[in-house]
């Protein structure tokens, strides 16, 4: 008859077990946090492109600036085809925009227009593709005005204070900027990878 | 078996917690607090961004392109700019301040060059004198109609003579071009101007602007104001450029202060100064060190407590007649006036030019204002960048809930995009209730980085009705001409906030004013015929004097001013037989007449006729204006060939962020690495426990 054995409630047992392995639990919790944070950055970068793609289709059809989601303060302005990868570019190169897509520096002309168009992107999400870009590669840029093709003339590494790379030029130029080194761990890097391309006639 | 399930349970719980931590901001952001939580998502990025990227107006084809860049000569790349030293000497006598600005252009290159410098001056400055100093020789500038002056200058430039041309591109923006500076040579250009000292709340003040906010010209502006399109197709005269060696443009300032009464204190708000009393009631003020030309210099002085002036009269006798200046202080009437029920509309600029310190100041000012409203007021907030947006479609009661909503709205403001002031004005002035009991006040907070002033003045003039318009200037270099004139049209005042420390004080002073308009519908009658300016006198607020400039052929005996003080009629007469002699009043009068004439233009009078009148006044008084320029030409040619153009860069106003490429890295990889090592650590520990 005395088979009844007192068992502590589940919640107590659970907390006992967690306490018994507190170091492991802590490590696991933090590990999950950072996995989540890292995954979140990538997920945001990948998923946002789908929403932006829809907004861009809309823009192409009716010519209106369409925010990709209701509360967005930006809108797609162009697409880039680099080495077979298509990227949708948003207006504005702020930290907020760059999390979702490469950002077009508003102070510069759009691709296809006279002058130096500057587009920046995160080295570890969208613009990781720039690592493989080589001189003479062709980049296609589409805006509401049409498609224009650019020929890569140089890739170089500059300091972040070197704003000369975004200065205007007389010819049609496309300048793509991302952080360097590509596999660097620290987000506060002082170096930038700059791809310059000249418009093909 | 049970242990394994427990581990799974724990892990899934943690995963859920993590998912919630990241998911919640996304879910929240669809509601009203959108931008609030939006910011939170990106906290990891913001933290890693030590210099925000340069952000400018939204239409790339507008002002911005000219901003970063130095003038380009063919394909030879970018040119160095000539070095520039500026020295300013002020002499303040009574209510008049005379400034002598010396600029030395040095050409460090080995070629002959022409220097172009665009410089701001106070909006009421009358530039009446210019001379060019080449070595030992001094060449006096002469006043000519604008076109004539320009062709004289061009002729001199092409024939290799040294020449200098001072012209006005806007009422507070002047251009000084100097032709043919030889290699290693220096040319000094001395410009003199004068202005009336500002007097409010028993404080006299003097401002010297040093740099210009980049103006934003909206895409569809359609006015006939004078804009000069340069060879790159841009009608903005001044490029802003990030100076790699910012020590180039330094300004030294000296002030000889002779107020005519004992001074209690002399302060400079933004630059440390030195002061000495040379004689009784005469002071000498200097800068502790030459300042960088990136923040306006403001000097203020106060009379001693028992010496507060209540009226002043200065006269100047010339061959053309007698000129005078009158200051009259209305009585203070705080205890008699109870606060009137008001409708307050706050309009805040959230365009790209406000980015940096400016938007923070604006938000602080707004928060202060909203929390200072009295309980029977109604209010609304309008923000504008490329579009204008109102918080509510109608003004709302000042309830706790509405205040909360307003504060959330304010917190969510960020500076980005163009600045379409007009659409904001349409929201603020376009829909007014006809017979409202309330006093309607619009408080306009902006840096005034606006290029299409004339069009806006026109709109304000036609739509202001009974609304009072107050402007609050934010940042290091607001366009104070636009702010003052707009406030003038709306019978309001212009408040200038330079640093964040000033916000509370300046806004407090403004709010006291708003609550108690002291004197309205002011009228002034002289005993004898005079020509006096300004024509339509503004409402006066606490601490503000009435200032009038006049010209007459016969001496005037007295003046009678009337107005309404709350509901009562107010009247005061001032005998004018006595008055201290002072020079420069004619220039001041002429400057005010020109200001009045330009104002008439917005009121739909014939433009060509007004231009002719401005030309006559300016020529008679030797003033630089929209119709006249000062030109000095050397007699002997010095350069052999033609010189190339160089432009001196204005420094970017303090607080505007330029000069860094955008930050383009995320901490994703770092976080992944940390995650993996922590996971490894946990697994090692687990194995260590399992196999002791």
TrEMBL record, chain B:
Would the keyword Heme turn up in this protein's UniProt record?
Answer: no
The cross-references to NCBIfam families, in alphabetical order and at most eight, read:
marine_srt_targ
Q: Which Gene3D superfamilies match?
A: von Willebrand factor, type A domain (3.40.50.410)
Source organism per entry reads: Alteromonas sediminis
Q: Which residue numbers delimit the VIT domain? A: 67-195
Name of the protein in question: Marine proteobacterial sortase target protein
Domain of life of the source: Bacteria
InterPro entries given in the database record: CHP03788 (IPR022440), VIT (IPR013694), VWF_A (IPR002035), vWFA_dom_sf (IPR036465)
Q: Where is the VWFA domain?
A: 343-514
Q: Name one Pfam family in it.
A: VWA_3
Q: What are the protein's UniProt keywords?
A: Membrane, Transmembrane, Transmembrane helix
Q: Does the keyword Membrane apply?
A: yes
Q: Could you list the residue ranges that cross the membrane?
A: 668-688
């Amino acid at each position: 008859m005395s088979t009844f054995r007192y068992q502590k409630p589940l919640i107590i047992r659970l907390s006992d077990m967690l306490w018994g392995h507190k170091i492991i639990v802590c490590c696991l919790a933090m590990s999950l946090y950072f996995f989540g944070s890292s995954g979140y950055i990538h997920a945001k970068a990948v998923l946002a492109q789908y929403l932006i793609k829809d907004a861009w289709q809309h823009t192409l059809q009716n010519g209106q600036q369409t925010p990709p989601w209701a509360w967005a303060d930006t809108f797609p302005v162009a697409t880039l085809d680099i080495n077979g990868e298509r990227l949708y570019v948003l207006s504005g190169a702020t930290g907020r925009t760059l999390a979702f897509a490469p950002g077009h520096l508003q102070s510069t002309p759009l691709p296809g227009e006279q002058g130096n168009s500057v587009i920046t992107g995160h080295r570890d999400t969208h613009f990781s593709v720039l690592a493989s870009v080589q001189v003479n590669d062709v980049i296609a840029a589409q805006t509401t005005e049409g498609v224009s093709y650019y020929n890569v003339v140089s890739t170089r590494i500059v300091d972040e204070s070197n704003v000369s790379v975004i200065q205007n030029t007389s010819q049609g130029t496309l300048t793509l900027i991302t952080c360097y080194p590509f596999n660097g761990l620290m987000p506060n890097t002082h170096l930038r990878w700059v791809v310059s391309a000249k418009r093909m006639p | 078996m049970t242990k394994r399930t427990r581990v799974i349970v724990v892990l899934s719980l943690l995963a859920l917690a993590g998912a919630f931590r990241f998911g919640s901001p996304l879910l929240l952001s669809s509601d009203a607090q959108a931008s609030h939580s939006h910011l939170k998502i990106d906290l990891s990025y913001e933290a890693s961004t030590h210099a925000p990227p340069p952000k400018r107006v939204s239409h790339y084809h507008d002002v911005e392109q000219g901003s970063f860049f130095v003038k380009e000569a063919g394909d030879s790349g970018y040119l160095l700019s000539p070095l520039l030293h500026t020295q300013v000497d002020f002499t303040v006598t009574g209510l008049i301040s005379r400034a002598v600005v010396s600029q030395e252009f040095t050409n460090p290159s080995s070629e002959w060059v022409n220097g172009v410098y665009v410089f701001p001056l106070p909006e009421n400055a009358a530039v009446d004198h210019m001379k060019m100093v080449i070595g030992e020789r001094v060449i006096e500038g002469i006043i000519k109609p604008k076109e004539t002056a320009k062709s004289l200058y061009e002729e001199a430039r092409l024939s290799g003579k040294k020449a200098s041309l001072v012209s006005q591109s806007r009422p507070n923006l002047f251009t000084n071009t100097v032709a043919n500076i030889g290699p290693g040579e220096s040319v000094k250009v001395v410009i003199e101007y004068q202005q009336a000292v500002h007097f409010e709340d028993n404080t006299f003040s003097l401002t010297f602007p040093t740099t210009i906010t980049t103006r934003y010209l909206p895409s569809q502006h359609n006015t006939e104001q004078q804009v000069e399109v340069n060879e790159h197709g841009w009608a903005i005269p001044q490029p802003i450029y990030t100076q790699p060696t910012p020590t180039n443009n330094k300004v030294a300032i000296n002030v000889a202060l002779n107020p005519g009464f004992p001074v209690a204190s002399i302060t400079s708000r933004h630059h440390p100064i030195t002061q000495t009393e040379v004689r009784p009631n005469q002071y000498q003020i200097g800068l502790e060190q030459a300042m960088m030309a990136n923040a306006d210099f403001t000097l203020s002085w106060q009379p001693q407590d028992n010496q507060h002036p209540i009226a002043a009269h200065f006269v100047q006798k010339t061959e053309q007649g007698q000129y005078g200046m009158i200051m009259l202080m209305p009585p203070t009437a705080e205890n008699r006036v109870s606060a009137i029920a008001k409708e307050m509309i706050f309009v805040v600029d959230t365009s790209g030019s406000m980015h940096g310190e400016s938007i923070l100041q604006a938000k602080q000012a707004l928060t202060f204002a909203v929390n200072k409203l009295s309980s029977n007021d109604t209010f609304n907030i309008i923000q504008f960048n490329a579009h204008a947006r109102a918080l509510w479609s109608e003004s709302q009661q000042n309830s706790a809930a509405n205040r909360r909503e307003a504060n959330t709205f304010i917190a969510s403001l960020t500076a980005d995009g163009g600045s379409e002031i007009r659409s904001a004005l349409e929201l603020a002035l376009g829909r007014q209730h006809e017979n409202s009991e309330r006093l309607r006040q619009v408080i306009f907070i902006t840096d005034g980085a606006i290029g299409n002033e004339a069009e806006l003045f026109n709109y304000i003039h036609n739509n202001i009705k009974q609304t009072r318009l107050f402007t609050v200037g934010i940042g290091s270099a607001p366009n104070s001409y636009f702010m003052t004139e707009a406030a003038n049209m709306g019978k309001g005042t212009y408040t200038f906030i330079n640093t964040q420390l000033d916000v509370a004080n300046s806004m407090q002073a403004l709010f006291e004013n708003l609550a108690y308009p002291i004197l309205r519908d002011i009228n002034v009658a002289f005993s004898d015929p005079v020509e006096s300016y300004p024509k339509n006198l503004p409402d006066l607020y606490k601490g503000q004097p009435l200032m009038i400039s006049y010209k007459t052929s016969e001496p005037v005996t007295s003046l009678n001013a009337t107005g309404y003080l709350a509901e009562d009629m107010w009247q005061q007469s001032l005998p004018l037989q006595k008055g201290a002699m002072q020079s420069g009043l004619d220039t001041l009068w002429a400057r005010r007449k020109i200001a009045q004439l330009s104002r008439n233009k917005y009121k739909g009078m014939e433009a060509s006729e007004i231009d002719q009148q401005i030309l006559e006044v300016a020529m008679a008084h030797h003033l630089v204006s929209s119709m006249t320029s000062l030109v000095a030409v050397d007699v002997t040619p010095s350069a052999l060939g033609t010189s190339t153009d160089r432009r001196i860069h204005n420094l970017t106003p303090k607080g505007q962020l330029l000069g860094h490429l955008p930050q383009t890295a995320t901490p994703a990889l770092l976080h992944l690495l940390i995650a993996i090592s922590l996971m490894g650590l946990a697994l090692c520990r687990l194995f260590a426990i399992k196999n002791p």
